Amino acid sequence: MDKKKQRGQGRRLNGMLKHINEFTPFLETDDRYEHFHVPSSMFIESNKTSEKVKTAFCREWLRKTESFISKKPKDLSFCKIVAVISVPYYWSSQIIIFYDEEYYNSF
Fold first, then answer.
1. Is residue 75 part of a domain?
2. What are the transmembrane regions (predicted)?
């Protein structure tokens, strides 16, 4: 049973990528930071999940971070955008937008 194939990887990946594309940044600029977590179940870090699926997730995660950076408002006094990809615990990955320089330096 341990070698059984994990089914629905493509469908789950497509759903997760769709949710990643729906992330809306710069809504909570009064807070110290804003963060986005992986919008799926923990299937992404399973041993049975293919490397192609994990690579597609990482590419999309970095692409979304780059789009946040390009959309960064000019009127913010401080704003750093960081992508955290936790390998092999992909489900713990985050995109963090820091609005407070002191908090960013102590993070």
1. yes
2. 78-99
Domain that holds residue 77: 9-106
| Cα 18-20-25 angle, rounded to 5 deg | 135
Q: What is the DSSP letter of 76?
A: -
Asked whether residue 81 is domain-assigned, the answer is yes
Contacts of residue 42, Cβ cutoff 8 Å, sequence gap at least 6: 91
- Band (pLDDT 50/70/90 cuts) for residue 106 is very high
3 pLDDT above the threshold of 70: no
23 close to 37: Cβ distance less than 8 angstroms: no
Q: In the block, which residue shows the tokens 């493509």?
A: 10
Burial of 16 (0-12, 13-18, 19+ CB in 10 A): buried
